[in-house]
Design brief:
2 copies of one chain form a homodimer.
Chain A: H1 11-21, H2 29-37, H3 45-58, E1 62-64, E2 72-74, E3 81-85, E4 91-94, H4 102-109, E5 113-124, H5 126-129, H6 133-139
Parallel strand pairs in A: 3-5
Antiparallel strand pairs in A: 1-2, 3-4
Chain B binds a DNA duplex through helix 1 and helix 3.
Chain lengths: 140, 140
DNA sequence: TTATGTGCAAAACATTTGCAGGAGT
DNA sequence: ACTCCTGCAAATGTTTTGCACATAA
């Protein structure tokens, strides 16, 4: 893990990163908390938030500002796009080529200093369009 | 205003929509509340949230699930993309042609029933890259 | 040793909701 | 009249923060 000077390598940080790397599901801070708590039962939710935020600033991980009420985190930092299920909130990667050029277009036609872009597709995921009988029962 | 049957045309709804249409700044619910309160001082914040949500569901307005901590609302419902200032949070329209085709691509390569997509550019707006002397003083 | 990090609990925000009274149709 | 809607306030959900103690370097 490439850390800025002054940033200490703590057990909490190592485990948060390890758990995030294990998974491709773009977990929320709370989901990371639950994963990490299995190995470090006394960790605080604040620590998880502080460190996810810090790692995102450092560029070790990605903070996804997608729709829905919670931020999500991703250990895959290579640029890629996402698709979100409007029904269950799940976020998946979507393998559409990244259009780096449109940043230049954006810079030309706007007054902004353009840093990048993100595409978020929305849709209904397979589980939500094909509910099992039990799930159907839950919904009613 | 095209309303579904059963949905009543109240003063609150008219004024919320009128105020939102006056403006191109993609205000948050709280900003809409402040705008509307000048004309309807006793309106409740809950009413503003309820009606913005309702109008978004109906398709009269757009709810923008952009980065940052608050949702934003837009009276322009024609598809278009946005750029957000990472420094002050401001959201502007950006006039890049909408790529309707990529929804089909997304549908082919994912297991989702694709509904649409949104592109959000991020950058630093003109005011934030060219602070006035007073603003500089505030920051320090 | 000492600055940085952690756990805990409280605070700060953004948004939603229950309910009694108010208003559109 | 009969619903639906509103204002108000309380509740909820997410994220941030203050502080005393712990720990990496």
């Amino acid at each position: 893990m490439q850390l800025p000077p002054q940033m200490r390598l703590t057990t909490q940080r190592q485990i948060i990163l390890e758990e995030l790397e294990k998974v491709t599901s773009h977990p929320t801070a709370n989901e990371v908390y639950d994963m990490v708590r299995k190995r470090l039962p006394r960790i605080g939710l604040g620590t998880v938030y502080r460190n996810l935020e810090l790692m995102a600033e450092t560029g070790i991980i990605l903070k996804l500002e997608v729709g829905g009420t919670q931020k999500r985190f991703d250990a895959t930092i290579a640029p890629h796009y996402h698709i979100r299920c409007v029904s269950c909130g799940k976020v998946d990667d979507i393998d559409i080529p990244v259009m780096a050029e449109i940043d230049k277009t954006a810079a030309e036609i706007s007054q902004y200093q353009v840093l990048g872009h993100h595409i978020e597709f929305s849709g209904v995921c397979w589980s939500c369009s094909n509910p099992t009988e039990e799930e159907e029962t839950l919904v009613n």
